[in-house]
Structures are given as structure tokens and as C-alpha cells.
Amino acid sequence: MGEMDSKIIVLILGMAVVTFLPRFLPMALMMEKNLPEIILQWLRFFPIAILTALLAPIIFVHNGMLNLSLENKYLIAIIPTAIAAFKTRNVISAMIIGVGTIIILNKFL
Amino acid sequence: MRLMEKFIGFQKSDKKKCFILGGKKSLPLLLGVIPFGFAYGVFAREAGLNILETTLMSVLVFAGTSQFIAVKMISNNTELITIIISTFLINLRHLLMSISLVPYFKRLNRYTLFFFSFGLTDESYALTTTELKRSLINEYFMLGANLIIYLTWITSSFAGAVIGSRIINFKTLGLDFALPATFIGLLALQMETKTSFIVLGTSLVFSLLIYLVIPGKWYIIIASLLAATGGVLWEKWIQK
Prior knowledge:
The complex is a heterodimer of chains A (109) and B (240).
Chain A: H1 6-30, H2 37-44, H3 46-60, E1 61-62, E2 65-66, H4 73-88, H5 91-108
Antiparallel strand pairs in A: 1-2
Chain B: H1 2-13, H2 15-25, H3 27-46, H4 51-60, H5 64-75, H6 80-91, H7 93-101, H8 110-118, H9 122-134, H10 139-163, H11 178-190, H12 194-213, H13 218-239
Helix pairs in contact in B: 2-10, 3-5, 3-10, 3-11, 4-10, 5-6, 8-10, 9-10, 9-11, 12-13
């Protein structure tokens, strides 16, 4: 294991603080407040918006380039994965179908 | 509002059930978390961190992408303050996630709030917001998911640090798609109304545009703000 470098300790603590605060402050400050209806409506769209934004570059951008072709395996795999999720309402089966599709595409493409 | 009352009723009774459910539901995400944590451990050792430092970062920071980027910057001898600022910017997206959870989780006590926020990751957020649309859950669902993901993150980064090299090629196993596939599944389960598709489409277009133009993780924040605003405008507009 060994001794720890004091610079690394400072770095880890600094990273811990700046990671924790954005996760903590909104809830801590606003938890007790009743938000106006329009804000609630706005906040309700965040999960879909954020998840889409997290996924989009992973799926569509490879090597810094937008890839909309059929050679983009991730793009092809979206279809069976999403269908599996819609049909079964179950995330595990969606994940298995998705990974399975990629394995098959890796074998044959 | 009626849902909210039912929710509060449920909230009082089923802490343990929700906690276990959250842990269970997080299992498919682990197939993505494990290779990610393992790879982080390997990279951290290559960047010159020892096993203790590598693991401690996972224990205290618990943020995959920024840990990855931090160890890359360490190996490039980047100044500490630059690494910390980058970490802050990468994790600013959690600010939006935390804000959007405010309407659902009221009056958490100090300790619950601490663990709830500390464990807020892309994974537990995706899981919790999906479950919020499907069933009546309380904060213990998120706490259960957080715990399982957290322990897995620490264990897999420790394993990566100890083993020190990639033993399995995750790509040939298709495991590189495990996390995206799970997220696609979670997102698909959230798509209920026409507005959901408007929000998805708006976020998709803007996140890609911004990702290709602006460096960093700004694409998540800007695209989400625009897409959520688009959703509100769309609903106001069709109501008229």
C-alpha cells in the first residue's frame, strides 16, 4: 500500500468537496421550500433531458466525429434495446438484449 | 397533488422495502460500473498513485468521470488547482440532478440528506427518476441504490489498482455497451407523453451540437436546460 503523498491527499480532499457541494446544496437549501407550479413543471423534464444528454455523445460520437451511419454499432443497438425496455418494462432484459446485440455485431461486422 | 399525498403515506411505512428495492434495481447498472471502476484503478496506478491513494479517491470522491480525468491530469503533471476546478466543472451537472429531485424528497433529516447527496451519481439518478415515474418510492430507494453502487465502485477500483492491468477485454464481451444499454432502458421507461419525446429530441440535438463545439461537460448542462425549457414551452403552447 505505502505512504500517501500529501499533495495527492490535498487533491483528493479538494475533489471530494467540489464533487459533494453540487450534489448537496440544491437539496439542502430548497428541500423545505414549496416551488411554484411552473418551476415544478420545468424540473419534471430534467430527468429525460439529462439522461438523453448523457447518452447522446456515447452513442453518436466516435473518435470526435458524429457517426450516423449503419457502421455505428451503438446506434443500431439502440433499437432492440429500447424495444426490449418498452415491451418488458424491465431494465435488465433491455440491458441483456443491448449487450447481446453488440456481441453479435462485433462478431459479424 | 393526490399522488404526493399517497407518496407521503407510503414514505412513512416502507423504508426497508424501498432500501432493498433500490439495491436490487441497481444490479444491472453494476455490469457497467465494474469495468469502469476497474479501468480507473488500472489508470490510476499507471499515473503513479499507489493502491491506497487510488482507493481513497473512490471512497471520498465517488465520481467516475472526474476521477478518470484527474488521474490523467496527474500523469501530465497538471497543477492541483486545475484538476480541482475541472472536477468541479465536470460534476456541475449533479447540481441540475439535485435540483430536479427537490420536489420529490421533502424534509430529509441531516444524515439521510448527507448520504442521499453524497451518493448522487448519473447511475442512481437515472434509476431513481425512472422508478419515481413507475411506483411510489421514498428516499430509501435512492439510499439503497447509492450504497450498492458505492461499494461496487470502491471494490472494482481497488481490484483494478491491485491487479494493475486489464485482464479481460470488455469490448469483445460487449460490456462497453452495458452502461449505455441500461441507460437506454431507463430512459425508454420514462417516455410517457408526447412532451417526453419533444424533450428527448431537443436534448439530443443540442447535446450533440454543444458536445462537438464546446469542450468539457457543458453539453449536459446547457442541453438539459434548453430541453426542459422546450418541454414547458411546448406544453404551454399546446394547452392554448
